[in-house]
Structures are given as C-alpha cells and as structure tokens.
C-alpha cells in the first residue's frame, strides 16, 4: 500500500515536473494559479518543479485533480523496470545510430547561453542536463533553472555522421524546436544556433533564430542564471562565449 505522504523517486519527480510544465505552457496559466487550484502552497509547487524536493503521492493527487491529467501513470511507469526500444545501447537510425559509449563525453550539466529575446544587450542563461535515456536508446536533454519555467524544454539528441554536428530536437505534438551545435571544443563547449518561436501578445508566435552556447558547468566557477545584464557577474564571460560563435565562426547569420 502507498501512503499519502510517500515520496516519489527523483526520476518519477522529473517526469511529473516535465508534464506539469508542459501543461502550464499549453494552457497559459501561471504556477500561482495551479497552486491555488490544487490547494498547495506556491513554495511547495516551485520547489518540486525546480527539483529541490521530490513530489509526494498526496501532492501528485492534488495536481492531477487540478489539471485533469493522470500523473501517477507516469510515476508508476517510471518506477517499473525501464524497457528499451530494442536497440540496446545504440540510438535509432533516425537519430544517427550512435552508440552510448561513443557519445559518453556529452553526458553532464551545461550552462546554456543565448541572447535575451526580451531585453536588448542582455544574455539569457539556464542549465541543460544531458543523460542516456534507456527507453528511447538515445541521449536526451532537459532544461532547468529557466526564469520562464513554463517554456522549459526537453527532447532527444541526434548525432548523424554526415554533418559533423549535434542536434537537440524538441517535438511537442508536431511543434518543433531545433538547436544545431558544433562538436565540442577541447574545453567541451558546444556552439551553434537555436531555431524556436518567440511568444508575443496573446497567442502570437514568431519564428526566431539566435546564437547559443553550451558551456560545461566545470568551466564556470559560480554560474548565474536568468537574464544577465551588462555589468552583472559573469556577463563578460557569457558575452565572450556568444561572440566566439560569430568570430570563429561556428555559425553564420545572413541579412536578407
């Protein structure tokens, strides 16, 4: 028997948090609104979604009732032995047929940098974690520490031999976000381009592209996240990484 205050595993909690963030973005409701509907404190919800505390069964039940979505099925399937897609430790052909061992260097946490879409001259920073997904037989990425947490993304890593580049692919009900980056430098950084949609007023979405950098956490002593303005700690370091994309160049941006 499961008791109401039973804590879910870290993996179960991550899966549930990802679904909740997706539901918040799809329904365009705030975390405060969801907390009120689920009769939870906003602090409890924020900590669970941010990975600072695991979900409990009681909290999950309340969120299910508020969202009308079955979260416990995700938790139960995550608790069970993880099936594979039959490829073992080799990614499917559609993702480049790379092996887990050959790409083991990519696993880990990265500080992710791109220009701020809302404030000219500022830099937007968050964390990305890359790990092997046994169910999909591929590496997957998950974002965290995003100021706009409702837009947090996760998806698959594709590494085809032909192009020599790495692709972070998000596909949500046919809506894609694509990040194309170089193979890592000697220090492990990956540089490239993000192609996504910029959220405007109401339901307005505008295609947008920008430089993006993935810097291993070990390369930044005290990472800072969110919108980083000129003069703030790490701004010059972050700006140097983004400038390197154009200076090398790792990517090109053409004017029409």
Distance separating the two termini: 64 Å
**C-alpha Rg, in Å?**
19 Å
Strands of the biggest beta sheet: in what spatial order? Answer: 1-2-3-4-5-6-7-8
Note the beta-strand portion: 25-35%
Mean pLDDT: 87
Number of contiguous helices:
6
In which range does the helix fraction lie? 25-40%
Task: Give the uncertain stretches in residue-range form.
Answer: none
- Helix vs. strand class: alpha+beta
C-alpha geometry = globular
Assembly form of the protein? single chain
**Helix and strand pattern:** HHHHHEEEEEEEEEH
Brief account:
The chain is an alpha+beta fold.
Please, could you describe this protein's structure?
This protein is of the alpha+beta class. It is built from six helices and nine strands, in the order αααααβββββββββα. It has helices at 10-27, 31-37, 42-49, 57-67, 72-79, 235-247; strands spanning 108-115, 123-133, 138-144, 154-158, 165-172, 175-182, 190-199, 205-216, 226-228. The chain has an eight-stranded antiparallel beta barrel. Strand 7 (190-199) and strand 8 form a beta hairpin. The radius of gyration is 19 Å and the shape is globular. The model has no long low-confidence stretch (mean pLDDT 87).
Please outline the helices and strands.
Blueprint: H1 10-27, H2 31-37, H3 42-49, H4 57-67, H5 72-79, E1 108-115, E2 123-133, E3 138-144, E4 154-158, E5 165-172, E6 175-182, E7 190-199, E8 205-216, E9 226-228, H6 235-247
Antiparallel strand pairs: 1-2, 1-8, 2-3, 2-9, 3-4, 4-5, 5-6, 6-7, 7-8
């Amino acid at each position: 028997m499961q008791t109401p205050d039973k804590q879910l595993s870290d993996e179960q909690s991550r899966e549930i948090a990802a679904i909740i963030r997706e539901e918040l973005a799809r329904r365009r409701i705030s975390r405060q609104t969801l907390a009120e509907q689920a009769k939870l404190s906003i602090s409890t919800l924020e900590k669970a979604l941010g990975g600072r505390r695991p979900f409990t069964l009681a909290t999950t039940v309340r969120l299910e009732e508020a969202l009308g979505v079955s979260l416990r099925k995700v938790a139960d399937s995550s608790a069970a032995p993880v099936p594979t897609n039959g490829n073992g430790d080799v990614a499917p052909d559609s993702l480049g047929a790379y092996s887990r061992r050959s790409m083991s260097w990519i696993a880990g946490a990265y500080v992710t940098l791109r220009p701020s879409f809302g404030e000219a001259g500022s830099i937007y920073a968050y964390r990305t974690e890359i790990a092997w997904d046994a169910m999909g037989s591929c590496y997957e990425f998950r974002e965290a520490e995003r100021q706009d947490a409702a837009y947090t993304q996760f998806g698959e890593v594709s590494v085809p031999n032909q192009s020599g580049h790495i692709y972070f692919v998000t596909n949500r009900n046919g809506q894609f976000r694509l990040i194309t980056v170089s193979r890592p430098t000697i220090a492990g950084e990956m540089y490239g381009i993000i192609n996504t949609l910029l959220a405007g007023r109401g339901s307005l979405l505008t295609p947008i592209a920008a430089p993006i950098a993935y810097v291993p956490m070990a390369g930044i002593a005290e990472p800072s996240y969110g919108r980083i303005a000129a003069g703030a700690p790490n701004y010059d370091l972050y700006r140097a990484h983004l400038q390197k994309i154009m200076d090398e160049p790792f990517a090109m941006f053409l004017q029409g």
